[in-house]
Write a structure and sequence with these properties.
2 domains, 6-stranded mixed beta sheet, 4-stranded antiparallel beta sheet, globular, binds zinc ion
Length: 408
């Protein structure tokens, strides 16, 4: 490498580091749409991971990670009856290099740990290769438009859901192809320049009757019914242990569970996406989910409220968590008076100022006010909020699996 080239690399690295300071790193998991894949494409994708595994294990067995010739297309594979020659016909040279590159960085990471006096093992043989890095945009992969991606060596373009999320402002840092339980994903790590677009703020009360009640009066409930997995669970447990049928039943069960959790995730992502696009600050209460679960176990499981908080924290520009001991449902959002409600009181009635309002809405408004530490005498955000409420209601009503309404 010439000095000039080295200097240039150094310079671009410094520039990148500077740029990253104003950016935040996001990761996306984009599913490759399964029912758009032809049999040939499916086979190709499968073979990519199989060949990556062959290559990885071969390099490891030969012990030449640092001087392996990536032009080499023939490897030896260990089978039950000895070694066999195989040709890497699906794995392009770029991908072969990326397998080697990953091994090199693993070794580098291990040696770093060793220097820090950690006990380390070596690289191990893999029985399954699940994550292929796609290096060099434009060569190993190309994002064609908002729906399709093309991968080197594969003629058919792959339909990928969620590509829309990658705005032109997103700068791709790494693109991976991931083998999932029964599908494939494109994992993207991107640096995004944050924009302060949304200025509005909103409070959320997370509860059991309405999973989410917003401080503008929109109440959302969703529960993904789970009648199939328990049936499949029973069926699987009745099959003889170690039998093929039991294995088959377990695969079926796993698929049903995955489907269910994807459905939940999808709904939550859509809700949080709306909040992210329209609100700069979201206030919520950091209450322990275990407390709910005592009385409403199944219902909480169906809605996975814990995850929604988790994604609020990571995706909202300014998430404001209110202390878990703040009595959000006991205080009057209008005058600050306090009274105890039983679990079954759906309406908060204040004996001091005469306020009569939905219990969860009252709590949501308290959470919003507490998030900003607004004193009682200045809590007057209702009129402004209502314009947004209609728009929000319209959006939520379009999401399948959700029921949304206005409470007051
Ligand atoms: Zn009151």
């Amino acid at each position: 490498m010439t000095d000039e080239k080295r200097e240039k690399i150094k310079q671009t690295r410094a520039e990148t580091r500077l740029r990253r300071q104003s950016q935040s790193i996001r990761s996306y998991e984009l599913k490759i749409v399964k029912n758009h894949l032809s049999r040939k494409t499916k086979q190709h994708l499968k073979m990519l991971f199989v060949e990556a595994k062959w290559l990885y294990n071969y390099i490891l067995s030969e012990g030449k990670i640092f001087d392996f010739d990536t032009k080499l297309k023939r490897v030896q594979v260990l089978r039950a009856d000895g070694l066999e020659d195989e040709t890497l016909s699906h794995l392009s040279s770029q991908l072969r290099q990326s397998v080697v590159q990953r091994m090199k960085s693993s070794v580098a990471a291990l040696s770093k740990l060793k220097k820090l006096n950690y006990k380390i093992g070596g690289l191990r043989f893999k029985t399954d290769y699940v994550c292929l890095e796609l290096p060099q945009p434009g060569i190993s992969y190309r994002i064609l438009d908002k729906k399709y991606i093309q991968i080197q060596g594969l003629k058919a373009k792959l339909r990928v859901s969620g590509l829309r999320q990658l705005t032109p402002a997103a700068e791709l840092c790494a693109v991976l192809m991931i083998k999932g339980a029964d599908d494939y994903e494109i994992g993207v790590v991107a640096a995004v320049t944050e924009q302060l677009t949304a200025q509005a703020s909103i409070g959320i009360d997370l509860g059991c009757t309405n999973q989410l009640t917003f401080s503008n009066g929109v109440a959302v409930s969703y529960a993904v019914k789970d009648s199939r997995t328990s049936l499949l669970q029973r069926r699987a447990s009745k099959k003889a242990k170690g039998s093929k049928n039991r294995l088959k039943a377990r695969v079926k069960l796993r698929k049903a569970q995955l489907h269910l959790s994807n459905k939940k995730k999808d709904i939550q992502n859509k809700i949080v996406h709306y909040l992210r696009e329209n609100y700069g600050t979201v206030c919520y209460q950091n209450d322990s989910i275990q407390f709910f679960q005592r009385g409403h176990g199944k219902k909480i499981q169906q809605t996975a409220l814990g995850r929604i908080k988790c994604i609020l924290q990571s995706r909202i520009l300014t998430p404001l968590a209110v202390d878990q001991f703040y009595p959000s449902s006991q205080l009057c959002s209008n005058c600050g008076g306090r009274r105890k409600l039983s679990l079954y009181d759906r309406v908060y009635e204040c004996s001091l100022c005469g306020l009569k309002t939905d219990r969860d809405l009252n709590a949501a408004q308290n959470i919003l006010a507490e998030g900003f530490k607004i004193p009682v005498e200045h809590r007057d955000f209702k009129p402004v909020e209502n314009e947004f409420a209609t728009e929000m209601l319209r959006y939520f009503k379009e999401i399948p699996g959700i029921s949304a309404r206005l409470v007051q």
